[in-house]
Request: fold
Amino acid sequence: MTKRFQKQITTLLNECEYDRVLDLCSALSDADMYYFSALALDQKAAFQKYHKKSYKRLLKKSYFLIQKGRVLFPLDLRFIYLLGIHYLHSQQFENAKKIFSYLFIKTKDPKYLISIANVQKATGHFEAALLNYRKAGKHGFSKLLLSHNIAKVYELMGKEKQAMKHISEGLKHRPKNEFEKLIKKELGLSFNHLSQKRK
Reply:
């Protein structure tokens, strides 16, 4: 896969054009095809989590490609990462944390800190989640997404004042793509919800 084509795929993922990604990847026959196809299916599933049949069907398809990718390309760490994401979405939190921790220790890539924090948020380890989100924030990740995640942790902790602070910070940022637009929409809904509670 050329860098130009990879950039096109990444842009489509950020714009939530998952079916277009799947169409483009169907013409490939390498590790990238399996990786981006599985990633597109997983992200599509995440946006359909309230429709249980579609959610489970898409996760199942994604898992099949992840496992096939791991067999065909055993040294490609991307498939281990996708397996961690699959475990996270399937609520197999201990397995997800083991994978993300292993990848962070092996690569020192700060993106895995966000994944670890997502597991910690889901399992009630809120202080640890906040620490890892803040560490990741020093490496240029989406401020909108980080504000959203940090605000959600504070909301789960019952610290509504701190949650509102981070929601307000997040709402100041202009979305760069369709994914960030959806994140900003969620921030707006959280802001309205917490505002009503405080009246």
